[in-house]
UniProtKB/TrEMBL annotation:
It comes from Pseudoalteromonas fuliginea. The keyword Signal applies. It comes from the Bacteria. Residues 1-19 form the signal peptide. This is VCBS repeat-containing protein. Keywords: Signal.
Amino acid sequence: MIKKLILLACISISSTACAEIDKNKITPTYSSENKTNRYFTEAIALEQQEQVKTLIYKKWYFEESLLKNGNPNKVVTSCNTLFNALDEGFNAFSYREQGVIKAMNKVCLIWSHMGELNASDASFLTDFEHGSALPKQMPPELALIISNDDERRLASASSWEEMSRVKEVQSLNKDQAIYYDNSGGIQKLTVMAKGDYNNDGIEDMVLYMDNSVEEGSYGSTYGYVVTRLAADAPYTLIKQF
């Protein structure tokens, strides 16, 4: 709706005025906690959309070999080659290593979605802050889901807090914090980027969640795109992957 109004305005005013409207757009922003230090020789400061898009094809500082029965091992050296290998049915050598490959793939997917962010016309994310209030505002899909009972509760839950009952928050920086719940769950939430993901003119946010449990071997990673449609509204889930 916002973009339609801007288009109508541009029809009725000069091109110079339209250029001024473009200047008022909110450009995408990318966190320094972008996981690039895990894949390249040094962390990459991301400032523009094109830089993010190149991450998918940029060569890692290491190689990973994947296995598929009856086929030669496939060596992957970038997100793009990992995507292709997984699409062809290749996977990790062992069950234990599958978790590592899934986590690598998840980071690559998050970079891919970050590359789709465009400039926004409006934002209701400016007051975002990690803390004990955030789980009450975030959708329930951010909760740590391990059991079938968790899945059943998720169907009727209205927030992350309702699912997880966060008891402590350890803030690491403005983009990253660790959330501890009362059942032993540990969730490290990172804001990866902000920008307009679904082309509705409103700024959205790409999140990365790293899950684990106290005194256990469980681990999982998820990516989310969330938004806020009004200043006092809860966050709405756009995409989970």
